[in-house]
Design a protein that fits this description.
The protein has 357 residues and is mainly alpha-helical. It has one domain. The protein is built from 17 helices and four strands. The strands form two sheets. A two-stranded antiparallel sheet has the order 1-2. Strands 3-4 form a two-stranded antiparallel ribbon. Helix 1 (3-27) crosses helix 12 (266-277).
Length: 357
């Protein structure tokens, strides 16, 4: 594996670990100002790194179907399985819960972090459309930059106009506070995804500039302490957008610098690369252990050991999804639901027809 690919996968691992840390801080009631401020760059970093692995070797239809296979298939299988379990075991399933799965927003599903899968698929579909229709890869750097800024401006506008909102169907026991697939945050996510796609060669060969690093730290600290910037793409919030953007970029640069140091260590690199290639399973399967393990540890250890319980639970939230991935890789049946069909024989006839088209 080339050093360029290793660095990208390491960044994927770092970004998913930060996402889990953000969810953990909420679940453990450890919402310090620092942890809250990390949200300025956690999800933007995740979308930026997702853009670096975009491939355009197939048609737009093929790409969207394959991405649905990678993202929407495990999303639907997991949540529908949970829905059926609730219906059969606890008799707690409702039409509203089933509707929430297909609505695809954070507050409409039982395992909330999985909103990212539906949202990322929508981001991917929009990016593919923009790239194909406007032939962006062949355009100048100015045009590419203008495309990113136009998407960012559109995203900021939609978050201001469309958020907050509420969709309620009392007769179905359904409530949501965002649009389907978290549409209001769509173009902010698209902007970072496109930026990752356009800059992937520069990201893969990133080198730290000490002066930019120092400026980034200062900018992030000042924005964290002196502004009201808030970034929560899962709920459509992008407050004080100029400061939120600057703080996000500063945080991303800082993470790049830390990752460049980490890549010099073989065992740290191996760990985060493994997290990076396991990001789907980490995203799906960290939520339930987070709720269960922390509650049990607090009961056993007592509130005075809260930080220790949080640390152990965080490790469990990493370890358990990795174990689930190993189980899936050893089960042909589970592979069919969690692995891309193009990587798992037998290939479905749908893909054969698409390839011949």
């Amino acid at each position: 594996m080339s050093q360029r690919i290793v660095f990208i996968d390491l960044l994927r691992g770092v970004s998913i670990s930060l996402v889990i840390l953000g969810h953990a801080s909420f679940s453990f009631n450890l919402r310090s100002e620092l942890l809250a401020d990390l949200a300025m760059f956690r999800m933007p970093l995740f979308f930026l790194i997702s853009g670096t692995v975009l491939s355009l070797k197939s048609s737009a239809m093929q790409l969207c179907v394959k991405k649905a296979d990678q993202l929407l298939k495990p999303y639907l299988f997991t949540l529908l399985a949970l829905f059926c379990a609730d219906a059969l075991v606890r008799s707690q399933a409702s039409i509203g819960g089933l509707l929430g799965i297909f609505y695809g927003s954070r507050d409409s599903i039982i395992w909330q972090p999985m909103w990212y899968l539906t949202h990322l698929w929508l981001v991917f579909a929009v990016v593919i459309t923009l790239v194909k229709v406007f032939d962006l890869p062949s355009r100048s750097a100015w045009v590419k930059g203008a495309a990113v800024l136009a998407c960012l401006a559109t995203g900021i506008l939609t978050t201001q106009l469309l958020s907050p909102m509420q969709v309620t169907f009392d007769e179905l026991d359904f409530r949501a506070e965002t649009f389907p697939f978290t549409f209001e945050s769509l173009f902010i996510s698209v902007a970072f995804f496109l930026a990752g796609y356009f800059l992937r060669d520069k990201i893969a060969t990133f080198k730290t500039n000490p002066w930019i690093l120092l400026a980034s730290v200062l900018v992030f600290v000042v924005i964290s302490l002196r502004t009201t910037a808030v970034v929560d793409l899962g709920s459509g919030k992008y407050q004080a957008p100029l400061f939120a953007l600057l703080g996000g970029l500063a945080g991303i640069y800082f993470i790049f610098c830390l990752s460049q140091l980490a890549v010099k260590s073989k065992w740290i690199t191996t760990l985060f690369v493994h997290l990076g290639v396991s990001s789907l399973f980490l995203l799906i399967f960290h939520w339930y252990p987070m709720q269960l393990v922390f509650g049990k540890l607090m009961y056993l250890l007592g509130s005075e050991w809260k930080l220790l319980a949080a640390a152990i639970t965080y490790i469990a939230c990493i370890a358990i999804p990795l174990l689930v991935r190993q189980v899936v890789l050893r089960s042909p049946l589970l592979q069919l639901f969690y692995m891309p069909v193009t990587q798992f024989p037998p290939r479905l006839s749908l893909y054969k027809k698409l390839e011949k088209a």
